[in-house]
Design goal:
Length: about 575
């Protein structure tokens, strides 16, 4: 016999001996049932069906299958626990389920469960069409792809249940091992604690840490790159230029994008028909200085060097996770004010927003340090010659800027000349505060705050006129779509029905969408994956709406609604950031 054959035989013998030792140790008490439990499958089928009901955004078939599979696995766990409780109650009452009744229950479950899965999967095509219509997408979907939804769901659900049973097996093995030296309850508790410790250690120390390390490594490499067509600027009004104290190679990829795509003076003049200035854009990257305070101080020095404090508009910009600033938020100011603008931003991470959101403190601290440093210098200027101080942020950038204002509307009114927040997150402190204080009867997706003197919410330009009361100064605008999961996803969604699902609903939320405990939380979490895969004006895509918002906030001289429409048309091709930016 060859060496490979002898090694194979030894492996088989070792496996048989190990299995025999496990059987001897466990005895007749089975760890894994020979078949799934009736209660688990029943609730799993129910959760599968509910997971196909409408959510905020349309989904690809594979994403719907994944969501349904996870929902079914959770449902199986809940059903298994409920069945075990029912067994204990029946045993306590001295009753038992007869074999014939069991057979009837299993037969009914098989027939009704299969019928429910087929019927709801087929019906969900219609629900999906309703969601697609709500975001102006064609309602038709590829039916044969949707037929794979239950297949993917079954595969995902089975794998999750098997993983859970493996954990249960490991727990019981540990409990039996400790049982030789400890009382049975203590041994079992020790086995559970050991299993939890090992699982958490593996997930956090190996899987999660390894995944984050891989993401961080990839993001760090991407941050050192430069997009095609972006070159080091020669203008002294831009960071990264030869005169700049923030070297070009320290700005990060998104910082180089920001300063390298500043609107040229000639382009502004061609649009306005009047002479224009070269806009000021200041950006400080993570590698531009060693500490947060040093980076904030460098940003102020850059504003001084470039003449930013002598411009008519000075905007402090919050960035997304990778340091991105949406051109849809920055370019309109430069066109509206003839280039007589300065914009300043600081990088706090090079990780994607969905990862950076796990460490919100970095965004908050950076926003606060930057704004405080700029504001401190701005206050020293003569009141009659100060630029108008604005703040802007999109998504996690809006969280950064709200934190800079201590989440206070009074601070915003006292210290700024206006603010634009696009697609705020559920954790934005000011957003939460003003939304909670909305007028009774005004919907959460478009709240009316006080008499609308300072803060207004919009999904379309017509919303700026709600309420009809006069709009004072300074003005703050929140742009938030009714179908934006970035705005509406929150941990509270797991156990509390949200107000944004009350009637009337936003125009882009399907009337068939319902709230279910835990399931809706998971559905909206899955919607995050497709938040940027819809047309402008839906999901997390706001298109050129910031143009009309800035026109309302800053009221440029001699600016008309026709100018806003013309500028929006010019900027339609500008790329919006995604959740991975």
């Amino acid at each position: 016999m060859s060496g490979a054959g002898r090694a194979l035989n030894r492996t088989k013998d070792w496996t048989r001996r190990a299995a025999e030792r496990v059987r001897q140790q466990l005895g007749p008490d089975r760890v894994v049932r020979r078949r799934p439990c009736w209660g688990g499958i029943t609730v799993a089928v129910l959760c599968y069906c509910l997971s196909l009901t409408p959510s905020l955004l349309p989904r690809a078939w594979w994403l719907q299958g994944l969501a349904a599979g996870v929902s079914a696995a959770v449902g199986y766990a809940v059903g298994a626990v409920l069945e075990q409780l029912a067994r204990l109650l029946l045993r306590w009452a001295g009753a038992r389920v007869r074999p014939r009744v069991r057979r009837v229950l299993w037969t009914a479950l098989g027939l009704l469960g299969a019928a429910a899965v087929v019927t709801v999967t087929a019906w969900s095509v219609r629900w999906e069409g309703q969601v697609r219509r709500a975001v102006t997408l064609p309602p038709d979907i590829v039916w044969w792809q949707w037929a794979f939804v239950p297949v993917v769901a079954a595969l995902v659900g089975t794998l999750l249940v098997l993983a859970a049973r493996t954990v249960r097996l490991a727990t019981r093995l540990a409990a039996h091992a400790f049982g030789a030296h400890l009382p049975r309850p203590v041994a079992y508790a020790t086995g559970v604690a050991l299993a939890v410790f090992v699982i958490v250690g593996i997930v956090q120390g190996f899987l999660l840490r390894g995944a984050l390390d891989a993401i961080e490594s990839a993001a760090s490499l991407a941050d050192q790159g430069t997009a095609e067509g972006v070159h080091q600027p020669g203008l002294s009004t831009l960071s990264g230029s030869p005169e700049s104290a923030a070297p070009w190679d320290t700005l990060g990829a998104k910082g180089r994008d920001f300063v390298g795509t500043a609107t040229p003076r000639a382009g502004i003049a061609a649009f306005t028909g009047r002479p224009a200035r070269d806009p000021v854009r200041v950006y400080v990257g993570l590698r531009s200085a060693g500490t947060l305070d040093e980076r904030a101080a460098l940003a102020v020095r850059e504003l001084e060097r470039t003449g930013g404090f002598s411009r008519r508009i000075l905007a402090v910009m919050g960035t997304t996770g990778t340091g991105w600033i949406n051109d849809q938020g920055s370019k309109p100011l430069e066109y509206m004010w003839g280039g007589d603008t300065a914009q300043v931003a600081m990088q706090y991470s090079y990780l994607p927003s969905w990862v950076s959101a796990l460490t919100e403190d970095e965004a908050a601290d950076t926003g606060r340090a930057l704004f405080d440093a700029v504001y401190a210098k701005w206050r020293t200027l003569p009141a009659g010659s100060r630029p108008r101080l604005l703040v802007y942020g999109e998504s996690l950038g809006s969280f950064s800027m709200e934190s800079a204002l201590n989440g206070s509307l009074a601070t915003l009114v006292a210290e700024t000349g206006g603010a634009l927040f696009v697609g705020p997150t559920y954790d934005n402190p000011l957003w939460k505060s003003v939304t909670a204080q909305r007028q009774p009867g005004s919907p959460e997706w478009r709240p009316v705050v006080g008499d609308g003197a300072h803060v207004r919410f919009a999904q379309v330009p017509a919303d700026y006129g709600i309420p009809a009361a006069p709009w004072g100064e300074p003005r703050a605008v929140y742009l938030q779509n009714g179908s934006d999961p970035v705005v509406w996803w929150s941990p509270a969604l797991a156990f509390h029905q949200p107000d944004w699902l009350d009637r009337p609903r936003a125009r882009d939320v399907s009337p068939a969408m319902q709230w279910y405990p835990l399931l809706t939380f998971w559905q909206v979490a899955c919607d995050l994956a497709g938040a940027d895969s819809v047309p402008d004006g839906f999901g997390h895509r706001y298109g050129t709406l910031p143009t009309s918002a800035w026109a309302q906030i800053t009221t440029p001289p001699d600016w008309t609604a026709a100018d806003t429409a013309r500028l929006s048309g010019l900027l339609e091709s500008v790329h919006e950031p995604g959740l991975l930016d």
